[in-house]
Amino acid sequence: MNTTSSGPGQPGVTRHGGARLITGVRHRAGTGRAPGSVLIAVAAWLLALTGGGALFVSFSAQYAYIFTVRRQDAASVIEALLVDLLMIVFTLLALGLSRAGKSSRTERVLIVACAAASSYMNVSAADVASPRSVTAYAIAPSRVAAELAPQAGLQPGTARSYLYAELDGSPS
Questions:
Q1: What distance in Å separates the CA atoms of residue 128 and residue 134, rounded to the nearest whole number?
Q2: How sure is the predictor about 156, in pLDDT bands with cuts at 50, 70 and 90?
Q3: For position 157, what pLDDT does the model report?
Q4: Which residues are registered as beta bridge partners of 21?
Q5: Domains of the chain: which residue ranges?
Q6: Are 91 and 148 in contact (CB under 8 A)?
Q7: Is 118:84 a contact under the CB 8 Å cutoff?
Q8: pLDDT at 24
Q9: Dihedrals φ, ψ of 13, to 5°?
Q10: DSSP states of 100-161
Q11: Which residue, among 68, 59, 64, has the nearest Cα to 87 in the 3D structure?
């Protein structure tokens, strides 16, 4: 018996008669996963945790501001959740339309509009005289939009291509 591990193919053992037995059966059979799929899954979960944290921070700031203005608990919760949940709904719509081969230009614009509205609501609770306070309040919705928009096909810096697509009538 001769062990062969160099060259192309699976590692194995060659018998005297030339018959080759493959020893890496688990490697040959595989685990049923694509290479790198575990890393991608871990990154996706970390991205979901980051997005969840940013949504919580955004909700907390919006709730605090709306509750001080309205003094109604249930209405404040609904209004604080509204813009961020709409951003998620528009992202899911954009993903569905994109997978169906249809244009999701409107939904992508609405994702950015919801992020801007959410940032505005958060900044309203901030001390506008302090740039640090404004940044701290505005970063969470911006982070959520930065995570959702690329998944829906909206890449940073492509506003010009959308404008040109609108002018010449070609789909994005």
A1: 6
A2: very low
A3: 46
A4: 13
A5: 45-168
A6: yes
A7: yes
A8: 56
A9: -125, 130
A10: TT---HHHHHHHHHHHHHHHHHHHHTS-TT-HHHHHHHHHHHHHHHHHHHHHTT--TT-HHH
A11: 59
Report which residue type is found at 152: A
Pick from 158, 160, 124: which is nearest to 141 by CA?
A: 124
- Judging by DSSP bridges, how do beta strands 20-22 and 2-4 pair with one another? unpaired
Please tell me the predicted confidence (pLDDT) of residue 123: 83
pLDDT in tens, 116-136: 888 888 888 778 888 888 888
* Sign of the torsion formed by the C-alpha atoms of 148, 151, 157 and 162: negative
3-state secondary structure 63-101: HHHHHHHHCCHHHHHHHHHHHHHHHHHHHHHHHHHHHCC
Asked if the model's pLDDT at residue 154 lies above 80, the reply is no
DSSP state of 16: T
Burial environment of residue 46 by CB neighbours within 10 A (0 to 12, 13 to 18, 19 or more): exposed
Mean pLDDT of the chain: 75
Q: What tokens were used for 136?
A: 């701290």
The residue-averaged pLDDT of 41-63 equals 85
Report pLDDT for 4.
54
Position 164 scores a pLDDT of 46
